[in-house]
Amino acid sequence: MLTVIRVHLPSDIPIVGCELTPYVLIQRPDMIVTNDDVPETAPLDGHFLRYRWYRVQSDKKVAVCSIHPSEQATLQCLGCVKAKIPITKSYHCTPKCFSDAWQHHRLLHDRAASAVNENGTEEEELFGRDNSSGSGAVNNNLSSSASSASLANVSAPLYPAAVTQRSGGETWIEVGRSKTQNLLREIVGYQADIVCLQEVQGDHYEDFFAPELDKHGYYGLYKRKTNEIFGGNTSTVDGCATFFRRDRFSHVKKYEVEFNKAAQSLTDAMIPTGQKKTALNRLVKDNVALIVVLEAKVSNQLVDNPGKRQLLCVANTHVHVHQDLKDVKLWQVHTLLKGLEKIAASADIPMLVCGDFNSVPGSAPHALLALGKVDQTHPDLAVDPLNILRPHNKLVHQLPLVSAYSSFGRTVGLGFEQHRRRVDSATNEPLFTNVTRDFIGTLDYIFYTADSLVVESLLELLDEESLRKDTALPSPEWSSDHIALLAEFRCCKNRSRR
After folding, report:
1. Which residues pair with 440 in a beta bridge?
2. How far apart are alpha carbons 43 and 49 in whole angstroms?
3. Are strands 311-318 and 138-139 parallel, antiparallel or unpaired?
4. What are the two backbone dihedrals, phi and then psi, of residue 212, each rounded to the nearest 5 degrees?
5. What is 2-24+181-491's CATH superfamily?
6. Among 1, 95, 236, 490, which one is least packed by beta carbons within 10 Å?
7. Distance, CA of 446 to CA of 489 (rounded, Å)
């Protein structure tokens, strides 16, 4: 996963942020060209292997589920049909699929209703059901005409049909012959000053990302996850990587946060001896955070006067994914924030906190980051078998953190209405940053210290229509299951911290 942060510093230095998960298209085993085809005297672009990347597509003429593209649809939302929502979005594979997706799916109905509401609609009749139940008008028997309609509404392929090959009821679409991944092209294309990535496999960092980004002027720092759970080849363990442009910044200091070590310290101090093994089994998840302090350069030179030095602290993390471990997620975020508070206490320094927090807007980790505290009645606090979150009033921090996309949602200006339609009205966070077969929602954020940084601009959010709805992410166009988040900031004089 990737986070890029673009910031305008006093010397007009840009920084940016984005969130991606690496994705490599597959090579057909029977189509890989060996090095025997490329003589040593004539390498192709410096390589002795040819690369042909393909995307597989089923040739079955059936309607497919809008949430699980590999599954055949058996249900259709008649509310979508009546509201003239694109028909491909109306299909679901099972009643549970439809019910689980309802919270997001209902937004399609709301948008369609609001678009025509001023002229009078049947909004109450169509969409006035109890939304919490996930119920709706559903057709359990897809007709052949409906199936044909769904195929007709599929967007045109990104690559010409001339480069496809058919094999065993599947169409293999050739999408590239370059060694370079789509993901690298996207990262470089943002021309960011700072790039933070998560879920970067150790050998991928060493063998690909570090050397390739070095060619584009970036210096990289890496923190691999601890290996207590995985127990396999350490080179295949993933971690967090932060890159910065060498002509914009120099590296001052690096802090590595290992949540496993914090878990050991916590259990030694708080957990009775007989319960320590159980506690460690719950808390030890190998997650890490990478904190980097950078110094800005002016005209590619460091500032000699210490009083005029411009420092920036960038935290890059990937919080544990399991949804049943709400206490662990919150504890990891709280631990990171306490570490950042120590840095803030030692130096007056702008901060950026970016990454995949695996926490939706309104969750306890999101509340702690965005509000500086967690309401003691928050339902997430009910999950605390080790009592590590007590007393609840300790779940606070003093950093003036604000979510970049949330803060920008409160402004007006060119493109604001389009932006507003792509954020949640309650939190102003994006409607989604992660799109997979089983989930669509927001897990990724760029937080900044609002007393020292101001959001200047953001990368435009994607809407569902801009994603290929015949597949989940990643896709040939978007090389991650997470969309990019980017924010541009400028430095300002520090105001009083909250």
Report:
1. 435
2. 8
3. unpaired
4. -70, -45
5. Endonuclease/exonuclease/phosphatase (3.60.10.10)
6. 236
7. 11
- Distant-in-sequence, close-in-space partners of 350: CB < 8 Å, separation ≥ 6: 7, 311, 312, 313, 448, 449, 452, 453, 491
The pairing of strands 440-441 and 194-201 is unpaired
Distance CA 161, CA 472 (A): 21
- The number of angstroms, rounded, from the C-alpha of 343 to the middle of its chain's C-alpha atoms is 26
User: Taking CA 381 as the corner, what is the angle to CA 224 and CA 260, rounded to the nearest 5 degrees?
Assistant: 20
Between the two ends of the chain, the Cα-to-Cα distance in Å is 31
Q: Which amino acid is at 464?
A: E
Cα atoms in the 13 Å half-sphere on the side-chain side of 458? 30
Q: Structure tokens of 11?
A: 């010397």
Tokens (6 digits) for 1: 């996963």
Q: Could you report the average pLDDT of every consecutive run of 10 residues in the chain (498 residues)?
A: 46 40 38 51 64 62 69 82 79 84 76 56 30 35 27 32 54 64 85 89 91 94 88 80 95 96 93 90 96 88 66 96 95 98 93 95 96 96 94 95 82 59 83 83 94 88 67 74 86 61
Tokens of 212: 């390739």
Model pTM score: 0.70
Spatial distance between the Cα atoms of 29 and 47, rounded to a whole number of angstroms: 19
**The two three-digit tokens of residue 312, written as one number:** 């920036």
What residue spans define the domains of the chain? 2-24+181-491, 38-161+165-175
The neighbour count for residue 210, using CB atoms within 10 Å, is 18
The residue count for the chain? 498
* Amino acid letter for position 259: F
